[in-house]
């Protein structure tokens, strides 16, 4: 499969964007929706998903790429305030060999603590109440 290609609107993030699948949302606006990753690599792992139907960064319009990274920065700052991690990883995968599993463009924000190792990508579903509590704390820290 080519790295760029047809967008399949049956992916889970497209369903979340259409309100057909649930998500623990942090915020949304006209450009993105941000919600908790339900298989977090670390407590507070969240995702920023542009509304534009693009498979990956290569397919995304420059306008949305630019607007989305501003939302990523805003959310990263809120995660830092809310959860006080020692570090923050921002990742974005393009194509299955690069680690992409959901083929709708998205950015990961993954808090890191010096004494905690990272969980495996997409490993184990987190407790919903815990995710809701983290989302609430992050939302409260958004400026
Ligand atoms: P990637 O491997 O970059 O495509 O990342 C997809 C991410 O989406 C993984 O970290 C999954 O844990 C996460 N994920 C998959 N399904 C859902 C869902 N329904 N709600 C929230 N996160 C999800």
Describe this structure in words.
With 143 residues, the protein is of the alpha+beta class. The protein has one domain: HIT-like (HIT family, subunit A). Helices cover 29% and strands 17% of the residues. The protein contains 3 helices and 5 strands; from the N terminus they run H-E-E-E-H-E-E-H. Strands 1-2-3-5-4 form a 5-stranded antiparallel sheet. Helix 2 (62-83) packs across helix 3 (128-140). It is globular and about 40 Å long. The model has no long low-confidence stretch (mean pLDDT 95). Adenosine monophosphate (AMP) is lined by residues 12, 21, 23, 37-39, 93, 99-102, 122.
Give short descriptive properties of this protein:
single chain; alpha+beta; HIT family, subunit A; 143 residues; five-stranded antiparallel beta sheet; binds adenosine monophosphate
């Amino acid at each position: 499969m080519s790295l760029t290609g047809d967008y399949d609107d049956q992916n889970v993030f497209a369903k979340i964007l259409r309100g057909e699948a649930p998500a623990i949302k942090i915020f949304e606006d006209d450009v993105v929706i941000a919600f908790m990753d339900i298989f977090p690599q670390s407590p507070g792992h969240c995702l920023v998903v542009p509304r534009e139907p693009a498979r990956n960064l290569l397919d995304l319009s420059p306008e949305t790429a630019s607007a989305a990274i501003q939302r990523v920065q805003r959310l990263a700052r809120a995660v830092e305030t809310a959860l006080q991690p020692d570090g923050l990883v921002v990742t974005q995968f393009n194509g299955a060999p690069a680690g992409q599993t959901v083929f709708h463009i998205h950015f990961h924000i993954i808090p890191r603590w010096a004494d905690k190792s990272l969980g495996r990508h997409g490993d184990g579903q987190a407790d919903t109440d815990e995710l809701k509590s983290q989302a609430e704390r992050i939302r409260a820290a958004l400026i």
